[in-house]
Design a protein that fits this description.
By secondary structure, this protein is α+β, with helices and mostly antiparallel strands. The protein has 12 helices and 15 strands. Helix 5 packs antiparallel against helix 6, helix 6 runs antiparallel to helix 8 and helix 8 packs parallel to helix 11. The N and C termini lie far apart (about 60 Å).
């Protein structure tokens, strides 16, 4: 008889994710369900708003990759306006997005994943935790934990660097239809470069070495967690005004590469808590009508599919499509691709900085048309991100967001195909069912962000608790 193992919530990721698997008598996973536990209502919040508001509102979907949402939204708006930003503005957006990528990849490796392999200090908040399959020597473990601490400072500096051109972080202010509103000066370019050189040195000399050590000690994880085997990417980081990108768009399937046709994307909702009419739709005509408790459903995530098939997205897909990392698809391959991508982006950012012109414009004010339709495709650190926009009478009539984690962590679709993560869990053997560290290692390799794929709502206002933040009254008392 199969035994069930449930992780709820999965920790060290953004949002609330539940993983439930069944294992056979040999502790081998034979069935898996991934569940996003909360509803995201941003598509409904946006209806009736000025289309330009989407750039700022959709960033609130997530505090980890707000820049990617701002880029997707501004691309959708500019597509509807029929506008292409200048090369100078593209470079500034690349630098803002690149800073967010580096910060996020360092976070993913050191603070969300490393403790699956290295023992943290035996005190709160690192305890309690699993105590199985740790393979590092004491000196290796100490070195990695020291870099875990150092990475906190590096991430702070990556945020400060990004804020130079973005105004602030998270939730950037300067990205707008028409370009980037932040003034470009020699002083802020040099300031940005100082930060970048230090962060690049950490990536080149510590992150990559730590990653190689982990890959050496846990080389069997090159054979664990493959999943669907299909990869998809929209491409990201504009490198000219002709639509070419640093990371190419496309799909990888059955050992072959081909271009992507976004008309073949559909979201399904048979096993999602949405009305049946919300499923089997292209995002451009998508609907977000909740139906919690629907029979058979088990997640707030929909199930996006490309030409009816399951695809994985993320750094591994981007590096595969560029031909810069093609070793395989597994837990360790995802980590390796993410680290190497960080190194590549940091190097390119130096080139982009040197290509900026303080005498060229970065922003053009655009009039708001009465109506329009647009799509904004980019890549969040976690993978392919798309925004679809329709507006009439200068207000949004429909808006749909398709996030990377929906691609990776979706439930079954209308054809009963498991999502990419669910497939990756199948077949793994768990050493100790009371401490299923293997499940966490697979989940964390995808870097799920269910806060991005779902979000907060209680439709019946059944509030369990309330937090009140005091503010000074006019007399100065609290």
């Amino acid at each position: 008889m199969a035994t069930k193992i449930k992780l709820d919530p999965v920790t060290r990721l953004e949002g609330h994710l539940k993983i439930e698997v069944e294992v056979d008598s040999n502790n081998k996973v034979i069935n898996a369900h991934s569940t996003g536990n909360m509803f995201r209502g941003f598509e409904k919040i946006l209806v009736g708003r000025d289309p330009r508001d989407a750039i700022h509102i959709t960033q609130r979907i997530c505090g980890l990759c707000p820049v990617s949402h701002s880029i997707a939204a501004v691309k959708a708006v500019e597509d509807a306006f029929g506008y292409k930003p200048s090369f100078n503005a593209m470079l500034m957006r690349n630098l803002i997005l690149g800073g967010n990528y580096i910060s996020d990849h360092i976070l993913q490796f050191y603070h969300l994943t490393l403790l699956d392999y290295a023992k943290g200090p035996q005190q709160s908040p690192w305890t309690p935790g699993y105590d199985v399959d740790y393979r590092l020597s004491d000196s290796e473990n100490t070195a990695l934990i020291n870099n875990y601490i150092k990475a906190l400072e590096i991430r702070r500096k990556a945020h400060e660097m990004t804020a130079i051109f973005s105004g602030k972080i998270p939730h950037v202010m300067s990205i707008a239809p028409g370009g980037v509103t932040q003034k470009l000066t020699s002083s802020n370019i040099n300031q940005f470069k100082t930060y970048l050189n230090e962060i690049k040195s950490f990536i080149d000399n510590e992150y990559i070495d730590d990653l190689n050590l982990l890959a050496d000690k846990y080389s069997d994880y090159y054979n664990i967690g493959k999943g669907c085997g299909n990869l998809l990417t929209y491409g990201v980081f504009d490198i000219d005004t002709n639509g070419n990108t640093l990371f190419k768009s496309g799909i990888y399937k059955d050992g072959s590469y081909s271009s992507i046709d976004i008309s073949k994307i559909k979201e399904y909702a048979k096993y999602s808590w949405y009305t049946n009419d919300s499923g089997n739709r292209h995002p451009s005509s998508g609907k977000t009508e909740p139906s919690y408790g629907k029979s058979g459903a088990y997640s707030w995530l929909k199930s996006p599919r490309y030409n009816g098939e399951v695809f994985e997205v993320g750094p591994l897909a981007r590096m595969f499509m560029n031909g810069e990392y093609t070793r395989g698809i597994s837990v360790m391959d995802r980590h390796m691709a993410r680290g190497l991508e960080s190194k590549k982006i940091a190097s390119e950012m130096l080139n982009w900085l040197n290509s900026l012109s303080t005498s060229a414009s970065t922003y053009t004010q655009l009039p708001l048309p009465s109506s329009g339709t647009g799509v904004g495709l980019t890549e969040a650190p976690r993978g392919a991100l798309g925004h679809w926009l329709n507006f009439n009478n200068q207000s949004i009539s429909n808006y749909q967001v398709l996030t990377p984690t929906c691609w990776n962590v979706s439930p079954r679709d209308d054809f009963n195909q498991m999502g990419a993560l669910e497939q990756a869990l199948i077949g793994v053997t768990i050493q100790d069912p009371t401490q299923p560290i293997e499940l966490l290692r697979i989940v964390h390799s995808f870097d799920p962000c269910t806060g991005c794929s779902i979000h907060v709502m209680d439709s019946e206002k059944n509030i369990k608790s309330k937090f009140v933040v005091s503010t000074p009254n006019p007399n100065g008392a609290i």
